[in-house]
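Figure 6 in text form: structure in, sequence out.
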């Protein structure tokens, strides 16, 4: 498969990240890169025999993810809601602390200047 085809197939990946990933897979012996002496240069990637042994495991992982996607998304919604509440509470506490602490300091300074 050509680099450009892989890049089009995988959404939301930069060319740099794809290059790094392909080089890592190549160094791990999972894919093979073949360079053709053409103008413009053409590079194709092939799955090695070792890489091919991963296919059943990847298919199993994809199947598991598809079966559990609704549950995972529900948990993310709950977690996001909780995190938003925590962040709101922390920000409100900081606001109160700053208002109380620095508001008191400012009030004391104003009182001192008036005297």
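Output sequence:
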């Amino acid at each position: 498969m050509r680099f450009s085809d892989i890049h089009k197939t995988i959404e939301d990946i930069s060319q740099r990240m794809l290059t790094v990933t392909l080089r890592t897979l190549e160094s791990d012996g999972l894919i093979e890169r073949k360079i053709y002496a053409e103008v413009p240069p053409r590079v194709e990637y092939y799955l090695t025999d070792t890489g091919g042994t991963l296919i059943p495991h990847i298919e199993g992982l994809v199947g598991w993810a598809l079966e559990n996607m609704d549950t995972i998304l529900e948990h993310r919604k709950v977690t996001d809601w909780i995190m938003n509440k925590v962040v709101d509470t922390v920000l409100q506490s900081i606001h109160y602390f700053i208002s109380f602490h620095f508001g008191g300091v400012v009030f004391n300074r104003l009182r001192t200047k008036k005297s």
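Caption detail: Strands lie at 31-36, 42-47.
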